[in-house]
Amino acid sequence: xxxxxxxxxxxxxxxxxxxxxxxxxxxxxxxxxxxxxxxxxxxxxxxxxxxxxxxxxxxxxxxxxxxxxxxxxxxxxxxxxxxxxxxxxxxxxxxxxxxxxxxxxxxxxxxxxxxxxxxxxxxxxxxxxxxxxxxxxxxxxxxx
Length: 144
What we know:
Blueprint: H1 12-18, H2 28-45, E1 51-52, E2 88-93, H3 98-107, E3 119-121, E4 127-130, E5 140-142
Parallel strand pairs: 3-5
Antiparallel strand pairs: 1-2, 2-4, 3-4
């Protein structure tokens, strides 16, 4: 990973208990999709554009926007969901609201930098991306 550190992608308990071994919870294609997404927005702007997942490590409120561990409430994130399997991230892209970011991704979905994104969640105030296979043409917008 070139654009993210592990603590940005897993919760505090998992990070402190497992350290670098916590990478095992994250899907390889999801990590590539995340790095490529960060590169996509930076290339679009011509400068580095921060993409934020978890920020607990710097005193922020987010720690479950990437991998969601077994103790995370099942009614909020079902077992087998994209977050539980390390295949999803909820993000904020600096300089873009979530809807604008989704529109740009859809408009440019044929870019090789976006080729691993399979789904995005519609009508939410954050950018959800995941690599869950749908059997549908990419990129599939879903509503939770």
